[in-house]
Amino acid sequence: MKQSTLKTMGQQHGRRSWAEPWKIKMVEPITMTTQEQRKKAMAEAGYNTFLLRSEDVYIDLLTDSGTSAMSDRQWAGMLLGDEAYAGSRNFYHFEEAVKTYYGYPYMVPTHQGRGAEHLISQALIKPGDTIPGNMYFTTTRLHQELAGGTFVDVIIDEAHDPSSLHPFKGNVDLEKLEALINRVGTDNIPYVSLAGTVNMAGGQPVSMANVRALRELCDLYGIRIYLDATRMVENAFFIQEQEEGYADKPIAAILKEFCSYTDGAWMSSKKDHLVNIGGWLAVNDHDLFDTLRNMVVVYEGLHTYGGMAGRDMEALAIGISECVKDDHVRSRVEQVRYLGDLLVNWDIPIVQPVGGHAIFLDAKRFYSHLPQDQFPAQTLSAELYIDSGVRGMERGIVSAGRDPKTGDHRHPALELTRLAIPRRVYTQAHMDVVAEAVKAAHDSREQVRGLKMVYEPKLLRFFQARFEPMA
Ligand SMILES: Cc1ncc(COP(=O)(O)O)c(C=O)c1O
Predict the structure, then answer these.
(1) Catalytic annotation on 462?
(2) pLDDT tens across 11-23, in order?
């Protein structure tokens, strides 16, 4: 009798298969370019994947931000846009959704996450302040610095080790935080900047036990906690899967409990919320809300639109209710994991455990012959694109920028190339193509030379810097 050797995804893991909780009703064609075309496009883009034209990209894993596919209900909501300057009905739907699912009573809309980061930083940080957090994020830290503050990393050490299998690598190290409080004093700490999941650590989650303990510690010292909730729904999935006592709780309940330990949150809705644009800042404190509501009209737009059209707010309100559904979150995170499992199985160095929104290739181990000053992660993103048309991005020394005091490059422990997976956009076949592309880049790693930076913008340099291959 014929021996069956081919296995479905589920069978490979000894379980029944499951599939995405949607079917596709509209498609956007994508085309493959030739390697000659890609070499030319990459050189014209200064070896920076942010500077490529999207038409020159085959599978676009630059970011999961604003790249989700909206549902038919969200598109229907777009037609219900109330474009009144003030008091749009869509704003009230949106406000209600934030209250229902996140629990904060007061909310101001912003055009995207960094608009909210700007407002909270300007409202709460005074020059000379210290802001502790569980690893920096590029725009978050820059807004804290522009307000006169200094960010201090208090994440657990395991977060800086790409091979540590700690299930909650996003956790705050409470001893580091307490030592910092004792060193700089509570008056100089406006709040703890907590992110769930932690993007720069590889999409790593924070446990419920950790945020609960953080709340207790902060209560002891009278310090507030503000949450970067951008990918908190994915964080809730890891709590449900990994933390004792949460297996039977729905994602929505876990999300709300987590937020209840914080004083407010800012949000880039372009991620979890399945929309192409939008954000918000929500708080428990009415006086602070008053300040923010006044500031938003200066920087974003009236407090009932904050830089968004009415139709955007309707799609966002619907996106919030869709993104907390358990089957959606599972298929989203498991798709990322599918790609990660292939790469781990092939001994390709990536950050483990695989996080919520992306695979992070460990460029230090990938190109062990390249020093960090030759930008290994930038080099890897360029090589991957040239080989296969797959676009990722650098998350290493370029993204870390320069120390504002010394002017020197910061040298982060993690030198990563990120392949972020847009939500509800690509199929398992696309993931197979990406996995093979990474393998091809890995197989030819020894011949690769590094890059030198030839143009460096002052702020958030990773977006616009230009490079040339080393001679
Ligand atoms: C964790 C995190 N916080 C904040 C932001 C900033 O949001 P936006 O890009 O909407 O300005 C991002 C965006 O990439 C992010 O990943």
Answers:
(1) yes
(2) 988 999 989 999 9
In a 3-state reduction of DSSP, which class is residue 469?
A: strand
Q: Which helix (H) or strand (E) holds 283?
A: strand 279-283
With H, G, I as helix, E, B as strand and everything else as coil, classify residue 406: coil
Alpha helices in 6-71 (DSSP H): 9-12, 35-44
Say yes or no: CB of residue 230 within 6 Å of ligand 1.
yes
pLDDT tens-digit map of 60-115: 999 999 999 999 999 999 999 999 999 999 999 999 999 999 999 999 999 999 99
For residue 262, pLDDT over 80 is answered with yes
C-alpha count within 13 angstroms, C-beta hemisphere, residue 236: 28
Spacing, Cα 266 to ligand 1 middle (Å): 10
Q: What is the pLDDT of residues 134-150, one digit of tens each?
A: 999 999 999 999 999 99
pLDDT tens readout for residues 296-322? 999 999 999 999 999 999 999 999 999
Q: For a substitution probing ligand 1, which of 61, 199, 312, 418 has the most ligand atoms within 8 Å of its CB?
A: 199
Cα torsion through 73, 74, 80, 83, rounded to 10: 170
Ligand 1 in reach of 121 Cβ (< 6 A): no
**Ligand 1 mean position, distance from CA 350 (Å):** 22
Atom of ligand 1 nearest to the CA of 269: 10
CA distance linking residue 7 with residue 90, whole number of Å: 47
Place of tokens 């406000």: 95
CA of 116 to the centre of ligand 1 (A): 10
**Ligand 1 pocket: which of 271, 299, 312, 418 to mutate (most atoms <8 Å of CB)?**
271
Dihedral angle over CA of 330, 331, 332, 334, nearest 10 = 80
Helix axes 232-242, 326-345, angle to 10 degrees: 80
Q: Is the peptide bond before 197 cis (omega within 30 degrees of 0)?
A: yes
From 196, 211, 193, 201, select the one nearest 144 (Cα to Cα). Answer: 193
Q: Which two tokens stand for residue 305?
A: 């639109």
pLDDT bucket at 4, cuts 50 / 70 / 90: confident
Q: Which amino acid is at 378?
A: Q
Q: Which two tokens stand for residue 44?
A: 């014209």
Catalytic member of 49, 138, 150, 262: 138
- CA 465/CA 458 separation, integer angstroms: 9
Residue 212 designated active-site: no
Contacts of 116 (CB under 8 A, 6+ apart): 108, 110, 266, 267, 268, 279, 280, 281
| Beta strand 224-228 pairing with 191-195 | parallel
Structure tokens at 122: 């300007």
Place of tokens 């120390």: 403
